[in-house]
Design a protein that fits this description.
Elements lengths: L23 H14 L17 H10 L2 H6 L3 H18 L20 H11 L9 H4 L16 H5 L6 H4 L10 E3 L5 E7 L16 H4 L13 E7 L6 E3 L4 E9 L24 H7 L2 E7 L6 E8 L5 E4 L1 H4 L4 E3 L4 E6 L3 E7 L3 E5 L17 E7 L3
Antiparallel strand pairs: 1-13, 2-3, 3-11, 4-10, 5-6, 5-9, 6-7, 7-11, 8-10, 12-13
Length: 385
């Protein structure tokens, strides 16, 4: 897979000077450095050879696009090994330790530099007429700790909390069960109706295969013929998830999957590294993901949230109170988990027969910005018989 030419831009156009990893041994040597030394920096995106904060993705992007690599990254035993490597990087090596603090500074290339803060503020501010600085948006302390602003590690920074979420992200329609709110700060990718029990999700297109998305759960049949909504989280966004409805969590599980598998035909995109947006549909079937089922009052009824991690650490945390002892009551807008670093997307599944009137922002292509977490996403209703 290191000797084959990837079937995707830019490698299939100018591959000679793009191959940065010489082979397996070189790959392992790079991994051994990353897990004990490397914290994500903005500089990784420079030169077109990397995606901000995804060093493993940058190393593997070439083989991921080859025929042999496609088979390799789907293997269960390979992904078990990647899980050990990535968990070590997160928990013991760098991301959750003070080793990663050196990138959390106001210096050039630091995540608290002026350019980075501008990106975070642009994502988090909803109204240009009421602009909030990073320090007013998120829990931090630049006065007490002028170097790291109170962030103890990269992971601590990545899952940062709003300073006052009820003020900055109020819950839309909290007492109206027909209204579904946005479960995470994200940009819509796709709304798909009449999803199938099984479909060819690996082909070019926008096909969902419900049984495979939900790990062949007995509950999967409830969503056949229903509606899927998928959205993408940006690296600079808020990464905690909120319940889209009030009711009960009736089941939750982590589905271990792939970490670096991408759709085999992926030649229409120009970005050299990182999973392109339309690849998220494929990843919702194969990547590591958290699956949470909610039982809400009618007309929503049973619905499902799938939190998908698509690169590098791929940790989909489910809040402990909802991870066991079901059914467990949940309030609309209540925190239910978070993404711990890496590429992320989210999919909501609704039952057949549940009609949805989406807010304009939820329709892909209408806005080039995030839909705020806990804001109105759609109103559900049932067709008159």
């Amino acid at each position: 897979m290191f000797d084959e030419i990837p079937d995707k831009i830019p490698y299939n156009k100018s591959p000679v000077d793009r191959k940065l990893v010489r082979g397996y041994q070189h790959m392992f040597e790079l991994f051994s450095v990353i897990i004990v030394e490397v914290a994500p920096t903005g500089g990784m995106a420079e030169g077109g050879h990397g995606l901000v904060g995804l060093p493993f993705q940058a190393i593997l992007d070439w083989p991921m696009g080859t025929p042999s690599g496609h088979v390799f990254f789907l293997r269960e035993d390979v992904n078990e090994k990647f899980k050990v490597i990535l968990d070590t990087w997160r928990d013991c090596g760098v991301l959750k330790t003070s080793k990663s603090q050196h990138v959390l500074t106001t210096g050039d290339g630091g995540w608290l530099c002026k350019e980075a803060l501008t990106a975070f503020e642009r994502d988090a501010n909803l109204n240009s007429q009421q602009w909030h600085a990073f320090q007013d948006l998120f829990q931090c302390d630049a006065k007490k700790d002028p170097v790291h602003w109170g962030f103890e590690s990269w992971d601590n920074f990545f899952v940062r909390q709003f300073k006052d979420i009820d003020k900055l992200r109020p819950i839309a329609c909290p007492n109206k069960p027909e209204w579904v709110v946005n479960a995470c700060e994200s940009r819509p990718i796709l709304v798909k109706s009449n999803v199938k029990e099984y479909d060819r999700f690996w082909l070019k297109g926008q096909n969902y295969s419900v049984k495979e998305m939900l790990n062949h759960s007995d509950l999967a049949g409830e969503f056949v013929g229903g509606t899927a909504y998928q959205a993408l989280l940006m690296l600079t966004s808020y990464h905690r998830r909120a319940s889209p409805v009030s009711g009960h969590v009736v089941h939750a599980e982590i589905m271990n999957g792939t970490y670096f598998s991408e759709r085999q035909t992926n030649v229409i995109f120009s970005s050299p590294v990182g999973p392109p947006e339309y690849n998220q549909v494929y990843m919702s079937h194969v990547a590591t993901r958290a699956i949470i089922y909610f039982k809400a009052p009618d007309p929503v009824g049973l619905m499902c949230l799938i939190a998908i991690e698509t690169a590098d650490v791929s940790t989909c945390e489910i809040a402990s109170k909802f991870a066991t002892a079901w059914p467990h009551p949940v309030r609309k807008g209540e925190e239910i988990g978070m993404f711990h670093y890496g590429g992320s997307s989210l999919c909501l599944l609704f039952r057949k027969g549940v009609r949805l009137a989406w807010v304009d922002a939820a329709l892909p292509g209408n806005l080039e910005q995030n839909i705020p977490v806990r804001s109105a996403l759609a109103v559900a209703y049932t067709a008159v018989q």
